[in-house]
Amino acid sequence: MRTACGLSVAWVLLTLPALALELEAALSPAPEAFPMPERVPDTLKDDAHGKLVRDGLDILQRTRIRLPAHVGNRLSCTNCHLDLGRRAGAAPWVGVHAAYPQYRARTGGVDTLEDRVNDCFERSLNGRALPAGAPEMKAIVTAMAWLSEGVPVGRLVKGRGVPPLKPAEPPDANRGRRLYAQHCACCHAPNGQGVGEAPPLWGNASFNVGAGMARPWTAASFIRANMPLGQGGTLTPREAHDIAAWVLAQPRPDFPAKVKDWPQGGKPPDCPY
Ligand code: HEC
Ligand code: HEC
After folding, report:
1. What pLDDT digit, counting tens, does each position of 67-114 carry?
2. Structural domains of the chain, ranges and CATH numbers in brackets
3. For residue 113, which atom of ligand 1 is closest to its CA?
């Protein structure tokens, strides 16, 4: 049997578009969802707008290097928002500029796109918010607006978010430990700290307990759709839940402000706090 870690990066990159299409079909949240337009950075002009979009895409890919004062772990944005935020089932950014401002139950108010970006800075990157007027925020939002070109305001794209995967039976973290050793440890290391390109999954260098990825149904959904990298869709839902249970049973940074989440109710059933 070929292991995930035996795959070359070239093979992974070649197979990604096909997998993305398959997953888009599998994960579409609603029949009226807007088809995700294809966005190609090579088509960007060399004018002021094109330069700002490219800068935004670079910040999203190399977040730790570009904004060390705002990142508190070893992750960058595109470690989860795969393929420059263009992958169905990996919380794509294509379309987000058409979806915000929107009401969100977690904050109990209307969030702008800048607010939503900062949620991921504070939780997924366990770091600090960027001022809404910072040049880097301007670049990020301009990049997301470019990625969203063609999506009508207010419409949600197919493959948006990480649709929560409900378990059919209670997950088993012990089974997850064995499956992790078999399918994940080769890249993310037995201690979860990652090797080479593969980022950490737990510990101080990972996302904090307030992150979307720290919710078991979200993590299971992301894992099932996207991991092992290049082999998304090969684990069964039960295997993805067992692995998520094991990964999330490991220590990770706290997020004290979590006590203010869901002030008007509507907390999802898998929220661990
Ligand atoms: C640890 C994984 C992870 C990292 C790293 C991460 N995010 Fe996210 N992000 C998520 C998850 C999970 C969601 C929620 C998806 C859902 O709602 O189903 C999300 C949602 C979002 C959304 C809203 C998407 C939508 O459809 O409404 C935006 C915008 C976003 N992230 C931006 C960022 C930016 C910018 C960074 C880097 C500063 C970042 N994220 C880093 C996991 C991550
Ligand atoms: C072939 C190597 C490889 C294998 C095997 C693999 N991953 Fe990953 N994983 C990656 C890489 C590389 C990224 C970052 C992707 C990027 O930046 O484009 C990633 C990202 C992630 C992320 C989001 C970022 C983070 O650190 O939280 C999670 C969660 C994850 N993997 C879980 C798993 C799980 C669970 C398994 C086993 C089922 C697994 N991976 C197997 C390479 C791998």
Report:
1. 999 999 999 999 999 999 999 999 999 999 999 999 999 999 999 999
2. 34-147 (1.10.760.10)
3. 29
Residue 118's contacts (CB-CB under 8 Å, 6 or more residues apart) are 129, 130
Task: Kindly report, residue by residue over 39-68, the tens digit of the pLDDT.
Answer: 999 999 999 999 999 999 999 999 999 999
Is beta strand 109-111 parallel, antiparallel or unpaired with respect to 102-104?
Answer: antiparallel
C-alpha of residue 51 to centroid of ligand 1, in Å: 23
Give nearest CA residue, ligand 1 atom 31: 120
Quote the ligand 2 centre to 162 CA distance (angstroms).
15
Residues of the chain with pLDDT below 50 are 1-2, 9, 21, 30
Pocket of ligand 1, candidates 82, 120, 227: which has the most ligand atoms within 8 Å of its Cβ, to mutate? 120
Q: Which atom of ligand 1 is nearest to the CA of 222?
A: 12
Q: pTM above the 0.90 mark?
A: yes
* CA nearest neighbour of 130 among 118, 140, 142: 118
CB atoms within 10 A of CB 238: 17
Cα separation, 100 vs 147, in Å, equals 14
Distance CA 240, CA 218 (A): 10
| Contact between residue 101 and residue 112 where contact means Cβ atoms under 8 Å apart | yes
